[in-house]
């Protein structure tokens, strides 16, 4: 058995003195594990850092075996991601989310989205905190959808309207318009336009907090709890760092930027 595919390095764990079990998110075959011999060598170690794009060839006698990887570099962006803490935290969150997917199930859209985002994160000066936060939040929506727990944010669950959608039911995951939500606002989750890839007057720390509160609710319900796991520490650290960067960028009381 043999195949070759482009992939994103998610992580690895040590195996013996010099080998490692490498975890990749491949373009065509989803999340895939394999052994890399000599993984700690000077030639291979820089290639196998999380976030790098590589070309992986996998070989095994039988398809169900762990198999061996041969790795060639394509885009070594890990060093540039490490230089910016926010990009590094975002990488850790994305890699952790991809690691929750079933092994060897194809998810080309998730792979493509993360691969393009990491290219952007590695640029100088790179996207701002709000853009990075928006991507990660929308990726969490996509992850829920790919896992079979997608939210319906296209129309109001009560009226069927496609305009004025400002809330989401925490029970059904369906959008609710402002008029239909009258009197029940405190029972619903806010739906910031940031989460829909749009821009609104409230874009900023408040919109980010609302976006991750919404995705976090459904991740907890459908992904974390069924696995008996808590919210990953990397996600909590990312949200803390995002909050700091957005707070630092907000105008101080009494200050009017030119």
Characterization of the model:
Helices cover 34% and strands 21% of the residues. Helix 4 (129-146) packs parallel to helix 5 and helix 5 packs antiparallel against helix 6. 34% of the residues are buried. The strands form 2 sheets. The chain has a 5-stranded antiparallel sheet with strand order 3-2-1-4-5. Strands 7-6-8 form a 3-stranded antiparallel sheet, covered by helices on one side. Strand 6 and strand 7 (175-177) form a beta hairpin. The chain has helices at 78-82, 85-98, 108-121, 129-146, 205-224, 233-249, and strands spanning 2-15, 19-26, 30-36, 53-59, 68-75, 165-168, 175-177, 189-190. The protein is globular, with a radius of gyration of 20 Å. The protein is of the alpha+beta class and 258 residues long.
């Amino acid at each position: 058995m043999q195949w070759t595919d482009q992939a994103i390095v998610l992580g690895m764990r040590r195996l013996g003195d010099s080998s490692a079990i490498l975890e990749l998110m491949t373009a065509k075959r989803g999340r895939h594990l394999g052994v890399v011999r000599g993984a700690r060598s000077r030639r291979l170690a820089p290639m196998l850092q999380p976030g790098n794009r590589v070309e992986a060839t996998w070989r095994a006698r039988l398809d169900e075996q762990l198999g061996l990887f041969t790795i060639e570099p394509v885009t070594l962006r890990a060093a540039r991601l490490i230089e910016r803490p926010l990009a590094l935290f975002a990488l850790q969150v994305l890699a952790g989310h991809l690691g929750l997917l079933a092994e060897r199930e194809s998810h080309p859209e998730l792979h493509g989205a993360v691969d393009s985002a990491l290219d952007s994160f590695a640029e100088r000066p790179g996207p701002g905190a709000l853009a990075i936060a928006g991507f990660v939040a929308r990726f969490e929506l996509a992850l829920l959808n790919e896992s079979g727990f997608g939210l319906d944010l296209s129309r109001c669950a009560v009226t069927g309207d496609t305009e004025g959608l400002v809330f989401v039911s925490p029970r059904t995951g369906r959008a609710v318009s402002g008029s239909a939500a009258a009197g029940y606002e405190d029972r619903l989750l806010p739906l910031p336009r940031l989460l829909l890839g749009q821009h609104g007057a409230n874009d900023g720390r408040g919109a980010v907090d609302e976006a991750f509160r919404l995705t976090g609710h459904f991740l907890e319900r459908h992904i974390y709890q069924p696995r008996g796991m808590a919210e990953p520490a990397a996600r909590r650290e990312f949200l803390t760092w995002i909050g700091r960067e957005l707070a630092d960028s907000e105008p101080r009381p009494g200050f009017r930027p030119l």
